[in-house]
Amino acid sequence: MLSKHCLDAAFGQFVSILKWVAWKRDVFVAEVDKNFTSQTCPNCGFHTGKKTLDVREHNCPECGYTTHRDVAAAQVIRNRGIENNALGHSVSENACGDDGTGAVTPSYQSVKQELLNVNLRISRYSAA
């Protein structure tokens, strides 16, 4: 029982450190709801129901989408993050013309309007 509490504390510490490092590097981090990720179809959002651990493949009866169960859960988490990050904008449209996922489409790349931040990554502890 004690080891479970230690693992919970360690993961909480990991999340705190992750948020701090992301803040220091000016990177966006957001938490999403982890519940029911393996029971939701990433393609259509249909609730497929509880599965036993021996079922390793996600098959959606609604849209027919099939993939590995863990891949589907990761896609659901990604979709939830995109939905939370949209903040009132449609996911297919934002100020820079991207689709909101961060993926670069091969046909075009949006032109960012803001100035690029150049960081030389010089350690403040280096002897100069």
TrEMBL record:
It comes from Crocosphaera watsonii WH 0003. Residues 11-77 form the Cas12f1-like TNB domain. This is Transposase, IS200/IS605 family. InterPro entries: Cas12f1-like_TNB (IPR010095). Keywords: DNA-binding. GO terms for molecular function: DNA binding. It holds the Pfam family Cas12f1-like_TNB. It comes from the Bacteria.
